[in-house]
């Protein structure tokens, strides 16, 4: 599998088909829980939990460096 970085978006290049990663990172500003989720369905996984907003951002940045996150980091107040 060949990964191509285009601007801030990541795409998976599979044969002649280019597919979007279609995901994002969310940080809950009240609980500091960091999730990686599908942008359309919201389904995903918990990446980690910080003890502060700053720690949660560090967790999210590390996940972005290690994976293919298409839509960046979003903050939620849930």
Describe the structure in brief.
With 78 residues, the chain is an alpha+beta fold. Helices cover 18% and strands 47% of the residues.
Lay out the secondary structure.
Layout: E1 2-6, E2 9-14, E3 17-20, E4 23-28, E5 33-38, E6 44-49, H1 53-66, E7 73-76
Parallel strand pairs: 4-7
Antiparallel strand pairs: 1-2, 2-3, 4-5, 5-6
Please give a structural write-up:
It contains one helix and seven strands; from the N terminus they run E-E-E-E-E-E-H-E. It is α+β, with helices and mostly antiparallel strands. The chain is globular, with a radius of gyration of 13 Å.
Keywords:
78 residues; alpha+beta; single chain; four-stranded mixed β-sheet; globular; disordered N terminus; three-stranded antiparallel β-sheet
Number of domains: 1
How do the SSEs run, as a string of H and E? EEEEEEHE
The main pleated sheet reads as: 4 strands, mixed
Number of helices: 1
Structural class, from secondary structure content? alpha+beta
Taking pLDDT < 50 over at least 5 consecutive residues as the criterion, the unreliable ranges are 1-14
Helix content bin: 10-25%
Number of strands: 7
Strand order of the largest sheet: 6-5-4-7
**Terminal residue distance:** 36 Å
Q: What's the shape? A: globular
β-strand percent reads over 45%
Gyration radius, to the nearest Å?
A: 13 Å
Q: Please state the average pLDDT score.
A: 78
